[in-house]
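For consistency, the fold was encoded as tokens, as this record shows:
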Amino acid sequence: AFKATDGATAQADAMRRSRDVKDAKDREGAEDIAKVLVARTIEIPARVGSGGRLFGSVTNQDICEEINKLGFQLVKSQIRMPGLIKTVGDTTISVALHTDVVVEITVSVYGETA
């Protein structure tokens, strides 16, 4: 701890303003990405057996890789799923793009019988 001089107070205020500006830019970028993702269905190919069950499952990493093919730079921790996807069809998941921007997108898993 140190004494709150005029200089220290001014420096803290400047740092706070800088952080707020950066956060606003990050939120704006996240909102732009959200507009693109909401309008699309993310399609993921998979090997399937009889009854539409997958050999393995679709993970948040698989979904993240497909989204990043669109030119984004997400990490798998931003993909929020209730569990692994183990069947073909459409599933709704959440993507946390910013602390204030979380969107729901549709993931469509398709495949051919092995």
About this structure: The longest helix spans residues 6-38.
